[in-house]
Amino acid sequence: xxxxxxxxxxxxxxxxxxxVDAAADAAASDESILYLVPGSxxxxxxxxxxxxxxxxxxxxLHPAIGFLxxxxxxxxIDPIESGVALVDGHEFASAAAGVSGPMLVAHCxxxxxxxxxxxxxxxxxxxxxxxxxAIVLHHLGLPDERIVRTKWADIDRVIEADHLxxxxxxxxxxxxxxxxxxxHELARTLRRECPWDKEQTHxxxxxxxxEETYEVVxxxxxxxxxxxxxxxALVEELGDLLYQIEFHAAIGExxxxxxxxxxxxxxxxxxxxxxxxxxxxxxxxxTTIAELTTSWEEIKxxxxxxxxxxxxGSAPTGPFAGIPMASGSLSYAGAVxxxxxxxxxxxxTDSSVDVSAIVDVAEHLLAVVAECRRxxxxxxxxxxxxxxxxxxxxxxxxxxx
Length: 401
Hints:
The chain is α+β, with helices and mostly antiparallel strands. The chain has helices at about 10-30, 45-55, 65-75, 80, 90-95, 110-120, 180-195, 195-200, 205-220, 230-255, 260-275, 275-280, 290-310, 330-340, 360-375, 380-400, and strands spanning about 85-90, 105, 135-140, 145-150, 165-170. It has 5 domains: about 10-55, no CATH class; about 75-170, Tetrapyrrole methylase, C-terminal domain (Methyltransferase, Cobalt-precorrin-4 Transmethylase, Domain 2, 2-Layer Sandwich); about 180-275, MazG-like (Helix Hairpins), CATH 1.10.287; about 275-315, no CATH class; about 325-400, no CATH class. About 15% of the residues are buried.
């Protein structure tokens, strides 16, 4: 089963389903099923979690000594007094972010998991934690139990890891995700102590956010796939843009309204919600791009409705809902045309200009801008006004007004 399944969740789902089927067969003979797990049924046993949540079966739990009890006994520590953090090895980079120890890392079921854990704590590649002591715990409570004290650099080399392997980290020299954590703290410090930073508001920073965004675009356009040195400018500009995000989060935190953690959690939840083909019940199936696009739009529509309900208002409706009004006129026009075509009302224009190639299109755009300048017309305003006229025409056609 482990060899044929694509993910561990698939394995747990299959095991639980088989047990439910077996329990149904046993119930017909007034019997029950005994399901044994290593250690406590309440610790890292997702099949048990699934069974307890399944209304088709009645589950009776019989507590047992789990691997956590054995860990504390072997290490002779009080986890509460020592402040031990419990971390899933599969999510080490995110779950242990900002933590230097002590921590117990479970789900170290393979050497590649240990390798990933090791690399997550060495983001600079300088090996700052290489000589720090770590303890690999293997098969605790079994005849072949092993407790190996080793250097951090060797945690993936001292043992053949399996599902009964875990890792205890007394203290790392540098915390996991040090760069992001220290950057976050820097933004908070500047907000508190820099006279200029202290005066800024969300609105006063809009100009700088736009400037940094355009500079990122410049760096992207200048990027040469064959010249790694061009990466430096992109890294710098992405950092400047990231600081703008941290800046807004620092203001939100200072005002007691939201934090950077809220920002990160929000986008994480949104991406998971919008990718059911990756994280949902349909994960692993064959999905076409067209199906993904339809699903994406439906999810966004549901999100807008949920936001409206939460705020006591009504969700924006119509084919153009969700198009940001603050976007540039060209981007705005493109979004309106795209959505109009999607609902069967393509917007047509009168044009006698031959634009058979991209360069012709660019020349035509430049000529239009030049003509606007000659007539003292703002091309942004003119284009937006025309697009809004066409947008309203499509909306009238759809509603019959």
